[in-house]
Amino acid sequence: MFTDLFLPVATMDSNIVEKKGFHFPVYDDSDEYSQHQFLQTDTSLYYGKDDYLTLMDHSLKSLSTHDSLRLTDKNYLTDLEAIYYSPGKFTGKQITLKGFSFHSEDLAKNQVFLFRFGVIHCVANSGAFGMLIEFPEGMDPKNDEWYSVTGKLETVYYQPFKKTIPILKVSSQSKIAEPDDPYVYRQY
């Protein structure tokens, strides 16, 4: 109880992403057994291989029937995982999500990562999860601005990760207030 009076409340924002990063040097390690949690969720370590494939197949079948997806606080991490698992199945679909902006030096002025801090299984498996967003030309979003965005999903090769990742080409956006609970939690 007294700790509330003497310890500062940490704000979850781009400063944490910038300090901790969403790319960890261990990712460059060739250890096939190490787990990496950044940008995209990956719950495969909690399942056997066959069970995980069944889970992803079920998610993909469920989501593929929709022309548009809305990532909410409840489904954010599960649907985001499905999108990263098979981005080709979502190319051209309309996606709506919200999060805070983080601009890194390797992006164009109108591009940011839109993040939510998420807890997958426990605090040890938390991270900044989200998607690369491309706003219309002329926009110059700053860090820590909260947005609700809608756009069409495409993919792009992202050199820092040396892999193809989803990118949302934004068609409509609005600034929003930070939610009362900025975290999202993995629903099992």
Strand order of the biggest β-sheet: 2-3-4-6-5
Count the strands?
Answer: 7
From the alpha carbons, calculate the radius of gyration and give it in angstroms. Answer: 17 Å
Structural class: alpha/beta
Please give the share of residues in helix: 10-25%
Beta strand %: 25-35%
Shape, principal axes of CA atoms: globular
Q: What is the H/E string?
A: HHHEHEEEEEE
State the major sheet: 5 strands, mixed, barrel
* Arithmetic mean pLDDT: 82
Give me the number of helical elements.
4
**Span between N and C termini?**
32 Å
* Unreliable stretches: 1-10, 23-29, 33-37
Topology record:
Elements: H1 3-6, H2 14-20, H3 49-64, E1 68-70, H4 76-85, E2 94-102, E3 111-119, E4 126-134, E5 146-158, E6 163-175, E7 183-185
Textual characterization of the structure:
The protein has 188 residues and is of the alpha/beta class. Helix content is 20%, strand content 31%. The protein has four helices and seven strands. The chain has a five-stranded mixed beta barrel with strand order 2-3-4-6-5. The longest helix is centred in the N-terminal third of the chain and has 16 residues, at 49-64. The chain is globular. The two termini are 32 Å apart. Mean pLDDT is 82; it is low at 1-10, 23-29 and 33-37.
